[in-house]
Amino acid sequence: MALWLALAALVVVLDQFTKWLIVGHYRLGDSTVVTSFFNIVRAHNTGAAFSFLAGGSGWQRWFFIALALGAAGFIVWLLRAHAGQRLFAFSLSMILGGAIGNVIDRIVHGYVVDFLDFHWAFLSPLFYRGHFPAFNVADAAITVGAIGLIADELRRVRRGR
User: Fold this and answer.
1) Given the residues 15, 117, 139, 152, the one annotated as active site
2) Which of 60, 90, 96, 111 is the Cys-Cys partner for 44 at CB 3.0 to 4.6 Å?
3) pTM, entire model
């Protein structure tokens, strides 16, 4: 289990380091063009994924903190029980690290710092000017973890046939 907790801690450190760089060098709304489809920006998200509940009066901050801490406890319990299942444990570790990284932001700032801005013209019907909502290392880790859980379950189903 120590390996999986170390991986989660690595995600937290990488996430917080990149956010520290953004907060230290960018003001809210600042942007740097990196490629024709990628920018570094400084954005704040008081909501969840895709700014869900961002328009709340502030209660959502504490709701998301409590939800993430509850999920983190459950994930640690799952890791203890399934540390030998490599893909499952890797995926849970990524989700754990991402959740803790974003909880730190909510506690310290009251919002999550996002900075990765991808944009493509084909996304214009879905997102303003084709810009996918900005995200961060924690969000990417959570996404990788979710994909890993799906892959692990598909693998488990195939083995069961």
Assistant:
1) 139
2) 111
3) 0.86
